[in-house]
Design brief:
The chain is α+β, with helices and mostly antiparallel strands. The protein contains 9 helices and 10 strands. The chain has a 6-stranded antiparallel sheet. A two-stranded antiparallel ribbon has the order 1-2. Strands 3-10 form a two-stranded parallel sheet. A hairpin with a 5-residue loop joins strand 8 and strand 9.
């Protein structure tokens, strides 16, 4: 029985197999992954350009773009217009969807650091959506808190929180740049015990993109949450936009159906003329 020389075996393992039933773009995707691992590439390291990949593997630019698009979707690479393709920073797993934990506490638990730029923190009149979420009369006074959150020095999420005035009043003079809102509320005797939190895909507006350091139209994950205290009273309503290339949300699954539910949200009706 003959064996292929090591160099020939290596070359075969790093080539597109045109007899394979696997699509060429998927083979190329795996070859790029293998190359990142083999060469010990780190986040921020450049990858070969499209033209170089075409020449190296004997494939069309369409195949190359399909492979890179899949890797970008998986969070392995990031493509920067006018600069090239680079190894992406690893996405951080978060459990914010299925637990009443805040970003500050979640990141601190895994040894990271959250810093917040407080963009707005004041008392306003609740609009219809906020009033409904907090079960208040329209135009009731509420505290609004908008923060641009940075995790380990990188822009991560843009969140706006609304609280009934008697709940949020204690936060107005607090420095929330390097502290937890939930911890601050707990010090005032306000503790969230249950609530409803949802997540949906969306894209960045121009304003959101400028703050988060992404291109307009980039993928974001929107979290919407209402938290209640032990008596069932809403104490907080927030909407947060997380960068899709930085976060990966994980869900703990079990046989207990009370842990979560799939909710169908009907498409909004068009307004009457």
């Amino acid at each position: 029985m003959t064996t292929m020389p090591t160099t020939e075996a290596a070359e075969a393992a790093s080539a597109i197999d045109r007899r394979s039933t696997a699509p060429m773009y998927d083979q190329l995707r795996q070859l790029i992954l293998d190359g990142i691992s083999r060469d010990g590439l780190q986040p921020g390291d450049p990858l070969p350009g499209e033209h170089r990949l075409c020449e190296q593997y004997g494939v069309s630019r369409t195949v190359v773009r399909q492979a890179l698009a899949q890797l970008e979707h998986e969070g392995v690479v990031e493509r920067i217009k006018g600069k090239g393709t680079f190894v992406a920073p690893p996405r951080t797993s978060e459990s914010l969807v299925h637990t009443l934990v805040g970003l500050f506490d979640e990141v601190q638990r895994r040894g990271g650091h959250v810093r917040s730029d407080v963009l707005r923190h004041e008392v306003i009149d609740a609009d219809a959506e906020v009033a409904a979420a907090l079960e208040l009369e329209p135009r009731s006074p509420v505290v609004i808190l908008t923060r641009l959150r940075h995790v380990d020095g990188q822009a991560w999420s843009l969140s706006t929180t609304w609280m009934p005035l008697d709940v949020g009043a204690s936060t107005l003079d607090a420095d929330l740049r390097d502290s937890s809102l939930y911890a601050l509320l707990a010090d005032s005797g306000v503790v969230a015990t249950h609530g409803v939190r949802s997540a949906e895909a969306t894209v960045a507006s121009r304003e959101q993109a400028a703050l988060l350091g992404v291109s307009a139209g980039s993928a974001l994950l929107r979290l919407r949450s209402v938290s209640r205290d032990e008596s069932g009273r809403p104490i907080e309503f927030f909407v947060a936009y997380h960068r899709g290339d930085r976060s990966r949300f994980e869900f703990r699954l079990g046989t207990d159906s009370s842990q979560g539910a799939l909710v169908h949200v009907p498409a909004p009706r068009e307004a009457s003329a």
